[in-house]
Design goal:
Layout (H helix, E strand, L loop, with lengths): L13 E3 L1 E6 L22 H4 L8 E3 L1 H4 L25 E3 L8 E4 L3 E3 L5 E3 L3 E5 L10 E3 L1 H4 L7 E8 L8 E7 L3 E5 L5 E3 L1 H4 L7 E7 L8 E6 L11 E2 L5 E2 L12 E5 L5 E3 L11 E7 L8 E6 L5 E5 L5 E3 L1 H4 L15 E4 L8 E4 L8 E7 L2 E4 L15 E7 L8 E6 L16 E6 L3 E4 L14 E7 L8 E6 L2 E8 L5 E8 L11 E7 L7 E5 L2 E2 L10 E6 L3 E8 L5 E7 L3 E6 L4
Parallel strand pairs: 35-42
Antiparallel strand pairs: 1-2, 2-42, 3-34, 4-5, 5-8, 6-7, 8-9, 10-11, 11-12, 12-13, 14-15, 15-18, 16-17, 18-19, 20-21, 20-38, 21-22, 22-23, 24-25, 25-26, 26-27, 28-29, 29-30, 30-31, 32-33, 33-34, 35-39, 36-37, 36-40, 40-41
Amino acid sequence: MPSHSKSWADLSCMVLLLMVLVWTLGCSSKKLEQPASPKEIGKDSPSAATHSPSRMRFSSVAKDSGISFNYRNGEELWLVAMIESNGGGVGWIDYDRDGRWDLFLPGGGLLSSDKEPIMVPNALYRPTTSHSDTTHRFSQIADRARVQDGVCYSFGVAAGDYDADGFADLFITGYGGQQLLRNLGDGTFEDATRLAGFSHTGWSSSAAWFDADNDGDLDLYIAHYGVWTPQTDKRCTNSSGQLDRCAPADYVGESDELWINQGDGIFEDRSSEFKEFQYRGIGVLAADFDHDGDTDIYVSDDEDPNMLFDNQGALRFKEIAAQSGTALGSRAIVDGSMGLALGDFDGNLKPDMLVTNYQNEYCELYLNQGKQYFTLGTRSSGLMALGQAVVGWGTAFGDLDLDGDEDLLVIAGHTSRKPIKSSNLQKPYLLENKDFKRLVSVGESSGEFFGQVHAGRGMALADYDNDGDLDFAVSMIEQPTELLRNDAPKGNYLLVDLVGRQVNRDAIGAWLEIELSGGSRPGAKLIRHRFSGGSYASSHAGTLHVGLGDANGVSKLTIRWPGGKTDSLTDLLPNQRICVIESPN
């Protein structure tokens, strides 16, 4: 692909119905104690045992790319504290606006002998090679960027431009405090936590930026897990009498937070209407599920009902998970829910949702039928073939083979140190979407990573090497962070960055409607959503990625902005990255 001659910040805009910029992109550590013979979870399941050939190929390249980082949780002391179990996320962010994705990694924490958390530094990796260099190496710049020192015991990262200055900021969740890092645009960040008003010191797991009131700036939803302190940590055993981490039911949940951006760097706490939901929240996803112009919130809870908050305008939210069909799964009882993925699995132009769950449960697929009503697609899609031994965490829908439909990634790893009929190390899953109807496991033939067992947690997608396909990064407990490069044969694609003017600058809550031209499906329509949160405690790259299959272009691209405004472009060529700026009133 051609190299960039200018940085992202220097590229000029052209007018094409609307403003649109188009360019072509060609404390000491110990090793995790492993079982003597870890069971390879998924090896004997029907889906994993019989898989069809796939175009997908992924290569593990973290070490060769200069990424060397372990998320720490302090488990080497065998204190089996509850706080050790969740692990960390990953976040893709173009922090210096050079058109390339940088990787932020929360460091986690260690534990003293009396279970007091000890901060572990964060990491920020920036590409060091030129755009034309195919080696794509990274260097660690957390200290220089002033993001190294974090909260006492960190978990997740949420990326978003809350001050609308064009530079993405970071919010870090964890135990012992939260952290807001404001991007100053000069290669450094400042800690704006106290100024903004955030003061919670308990256990916050995940967060998502979104515009709750459609006033043009980003607000923040924060999911809390539960009430835990070193002094209240309990000593528990598994069913075989072995010392192990406690179950979620041994701790009470804590209600979540909603903070409204006042536009001056200060946030107002508007969490009162969520106080009745004292649940153990793990994941959060912000998207316009019903396409009414307001961004809604979905929260995955651990052994509590999951929650769907329908945004009804004027900062009013109604919890509708039970009536929408998304509170429970196939077993019709509460699940231990963790990760969240959003995509149009079945091609009906509505956002579906995947929720990863605990052992003896299923990864559940909720199919959006419109008007906040969902049906279960877990059985019909083939997901039940994965079995019930998987403990799923980070997950995402994405068109990994560029054929026009959205495939599925699931990262796995057990929370128990001594699980019964399972292993704490588990295989990840790669499932190919077949004709918008079935999900077929193809991981075993798609790269060594999928044949290995891991203590997997957070995962996020990005086209980090700017070649048009989706790669991903994975955080693992006390194991090296991994970067997976997509080496599948190249197909046609379109990459779209959205920039809001009246709406929030990140355009969270927007979606694309894509009409294909040429190929075997002329006139076919696809949809992609600009959402926030999802996976587990992670932030995907903000660029919207569209695989075009054998189509030779896009006859019409429609952008549905938050609030209902629409812009469109016509006759777009494939294999390019475009930036669409919201048109004036």
